[in-house]
Amino acid sequence: MNILFIGAGKMATALAGGIAHNRLFPNDRLDAVDPSPEARDAFTATTGVAAHPAATEELVAGADIIVLAVKPQVAAATVAALPPRKDGVLVFSICAGIPIAKLQSWLGDVRIVRVMPNTPLLVGQGASCYALSQSDDAAAAAFAAKVLGSLGKAWQVPEASLDAVTALSGSGPAYFFAFIEALRNGGTKLGLPAELAEELAVQTMAGATEMLRQKKGTPSELRIAVTSKGGTTAAALDVMAAHDFNGLVAELMKAAADRSAELGRG
Question: Could you say which residues of the chain have pLDDT below 50?
Answer without folding.
Answer: none
